[in-house]
Write a structure and sequence with these properties.
The chain is α/β, with parallel strands linked by helices. It has twelve helices and twelve strands. The strands form two sheets. The protein has a six-stranded parallel beta sheet with strand order 2-1-3-4-5-11, with helices on both faces. It is elongated and about 65 Å long.
């Protein structure tokens, strides 16, 4: 239809703007649309009912699980799903989202590569009477729904595990391989971890170094052990940080307690092998399901489930996984 083609062109024109976005764009914003009435969009539930999902990267195990959650719930509720793989590229995502909007979808689900690129896409979708629901990473603009893990509480879970592990009254040194500055989820995890660690008087955070990639985390781990040879525990903000920490420990002949965040398959394998003690696991499959439920609520004129209605946000709990509950956790994943 002509209006939709015009919308697609308008979004595609934002490519140059997206290319100039800062790398620290993963900052959670506040939406004022959808069920809270801030948007002027009047959403249309079309027939056939099709949901478009712009996924971050279809080669990443976390986002593969996310897409499976979207597809499973959509099938349960009689909706079809069209997926656009952004391949970890903001430019590809903008173009792919515009193409989804032009395909007669009823709702746009999106896991943003760069949240700063969302406002233009959201405006284009709203012009086509399509709600926009954001899954993970961060959200900006007049979005209608945002689901993510409770990252701060998850960070606190990691700290609580270490507090119990070293509950002997003796001093122990801890290090933190954190996210690069400016990423909302990583900052929330770090805050939860550091605030939680501060409650344990015998644990001291002696080093905090960024390690976004496995190689960067490996270097961070080496630097940690070189400067603080008595470090007994490392908390990694994601599975890359943990993999780097494990490699650094092996090459430095150290055996620290390593706790991670995400619950990716590689982490579960390292827990089974005894290289990692615990991980704070997210539920990407469940988040994908929540996106679909919220999309259909909005299309039916209902208010979705929120934990913070002011920002149109649902935060989901995380699960601490150790060797003790690993088998049960993996069995649950196998049922998804």
């Amino acid at each position: 239809m002509k209006p939709q083609l015009g919308v697609a062109a308008a979004v595609a024109a934002c490519l140059f703007a997206v290319a100039g976005c800062a790398s620290g764009a993963n900052t959670t914003g506040s939406g004022t649309s959808g069920a809270n009435g801030g948007s002027s969009a009047s959403f249309v539930k079309k027939d056939p009912l099709i949901l478009g999902y712009s996924v971050y990267d279809q080669t990443d195990p976390y986002f593969i699980a996310y897409a499976k959650g979207v597809q499973a719930r959509a099938a349960e509720r009689g909706a079809k799903v069209v997926i656009s793989d952004s391949k970890d590229s903001a430019q590809i995502q903008v173009t792919g989202s515009s193409q989804l909007i032009s395909r007669n979808i009823s709702a746009l689900l999106i896991t943003p590569v760069q949240p700063d690129s969302l406002p233009a896409t959201i405006s284009a979708a709203h012009a086509a009477k399509i709600p926009v629901l954001v899954g993970d990473i961060g959200a900006k603009g007049d979005y209608d729904y945002f689901v993510q893990s409770n990252n701060e509480a998850g960070g606190a879970q990691g700290a609580e595990y270490l507090c119990k592990k070293f509950d002997d009254g003796q001093p122990h040194e801890v290090a933190f391989i954190r996210d690069d500055p400016g990423h909302a989820a990583g900052e929330a995890r770090g805050k939860g971890f550091k605030d939680g660690l501060a409650k344990c008087s015998n644990l001291k955070l002696v080093s905090e170094i960024p390690g976004q990639t496995i190689e960067a985390a490996f270097k961070a781990g080496q630097d940690i052990f070189a400067a603080n040879p008595n470090v007994e525990a490392i908390f990694g903000f994601n599975s890359n940080a943990v993999q780097g920490a494990v490699r650094a420990a092996e090459t430095s002949n150290k055996k620290p307690v390593i706790v991670g965040f995400n619950g990716d398959p590689i982490e579960l394998e390292m827990i089974e092998q005894g290289k990692q003690e615990a991980t704070v696991a997210q539920d990407p499959f469940g988040q994908g399901q929540a996106l679909v439920d919220a999309a259909l609520d909005l299309l039916d004129g209902k208010e979705p489930k929120f934990t913070d209605a002011a920002s149109n946000t649902l935060e989901q709990p995380t699960t601490l996984v150790t060797k003790e509950n690993l088998a049960d956790f993996k069995a649950k994943l196998n049922k998804q």
